[in-house]
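Section 3.1: Structural characterization of target chains.
Under the original work plan, the team committed to producing a structural model for every single-chain target entering the pipeline before any wet-lab resources were allocated. The record below documents one such target. The sequence was received from the expression subgroup and is listed exactly as submitted; it comprises 215 residues.
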Amino acid sequence: MKRNIVIAAVTAAALIGGGTATALATTGDDEGSARQAADTRLTGDDARDDQDDSADDRDDDARVSSSGVTAPEAIASALKHTSGTAVSAELDDEDDGGKAVWTVDVLSGDTWRSVSVDPSNGKVLGSHTDDEDDTAQVRTALKGSSVTAEEAAKAAAGKGVVTSVGLDEDGKDKSWEAETRKPGGAEQDWKIDLTSGKVTADRSDTQDDDADDQD
């Protein structure tokens, strides 16, 4: 109501003076409108973030579903090309170019090699040497282990589609770690015992997610 009165007064002044009058009025109604506009913008931003997250999930689903080659198969193919010990395998976008590819890290003697495997047919696309500084830790962690990366991936496959598997050589409880995904579902991390192959949920990952939700 106050805003309407001010506008009416300004209009009358303009008519009487035969010119143009400009007024800046700040009232409670204007402040409320400003707050409402800000809230609307925030709501719009949240909606766009949700849409972006949904798009990312759809991209992940498409990447997983388009891979006809499983993690164990990718590891087996990489080891045929490069002899050694597979330490990790991950299905990811190659150079952020949108093309999915399996990347398998193999410790061959004292040399690390990264082997790229086509997820559609299992063919090796190429390999290159990597520089890693945790070779001693990896060898120590795997000493006495009876479960390979390929076997760990097979064990985790019962929980969903395995998108990555790798050795956790840090800390007291050394194990294989695997990430699985179900179409339209959240990703889940698992630990696979190095000697028994037993699969358990990664509690530390769950706790980290809970802490992020609280923040």
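Confidence is low (pLDDT under 50) at residues 1-28, 49-61, 208-212.
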